[in-house]
Amino acid sequence: MTVVTLSERGMGRACVVQTGSRLHILSPACTFKHPGGSQNNHEAFEATHIRLQEDGVNLPAQTASIGLGGGTQHISVLLKSDLSTRCLRACDRRMMETGEKPDPEAEEQVPDNTVVGSVDTSGFEVTAERLEQLMKGMEVLLSDVEQLRGDCSHQATELIRSAVDLKQQQEELKESYSQLSREMQEITDTLESLFETESTFEAEEKQEEEKPTEEKQEEEKQEEEKQTEELNQQL
Where are the stretches annotated Disordered (predicted)? Predict the structure, then answer.
């Protein structure tokens, strides 16, 4: 049984009871706002602050659109929260007073939820196969990374060892260069000493060569003087 009370201006309160269902809108259930006071047979109202109740338990507040049509004998309630439409059989005061029977065509049409479409899972299977292949590829990649890490570690050890050997060879080369420098200095000193000795020897030889020339000139001079004396005596 549904009872609707509206004022002439479209404002009022309502008590909606749906027989055979757990949905109830209790009084004071809602406040109706008339969009413009139209007097047509088909009028729309906005209901706010609706109080719903299931099995005696109050549910959160809802907002609904209520349409009246067919001489205010049917009420269509659209709950905006779950976007579900519920058609309620309604009777106004005149129907209650006259005792008219409700229209059987106005009974609520309950949707058939038994028919459920099959879900295509081929996409999920393809995705699962690709994911499995990706996981295998990741395992191979991780194995390659571990092997590469081991190779890099071995190469790093070899490089460190080579660096130590090169440093030792560098120290040996420095020592050999120092020894070679000392030997070169000794050779240079020896050559300078030899040059000095040679110069001294040449000077002595020159002096010895100059000495006989002077004696020879002295002898020639004496020989000329002797010849001159002999000529004078002959004259």
Answer: 198-235
Backbone angles phi, psi at 7, to 5 degrees: -85, 175
**What six digits make up the tokens of 90?**
């309604």
Assess contact for 80 and 62: CB atoms under 8 A: yes
| Nearest Cα to Cα of residue 62 among 24, 34, 36, 92 | 24
8 A C-beta contact, residue 92 and residue 72: yes
Assign residue 71 a region: left if phi > 0, alpha if psi is -120 to 50, beta otherwise? left
Tokens 């002999």, located at residue? 230
Q: Specify the length of the chain in residues.
A: 235
Q: Say if pTM beats, i.e. exceeds, 0.70.
A: no
Helix (H) or strand (E) holding 233: helix 122-234
pLDDT digits (tens, 9 = 90+) for 112-168: 555 455 666 777 888 888 899 999 999 999 999 999 999 999 999 999 999 999 999
What angle (nearest 5°) sits at the alpha carbon of residue 36, between those of residues 34 and 42?
70
For residues 93 and 99, is the Cβ–Cβ distance under 8 A? no
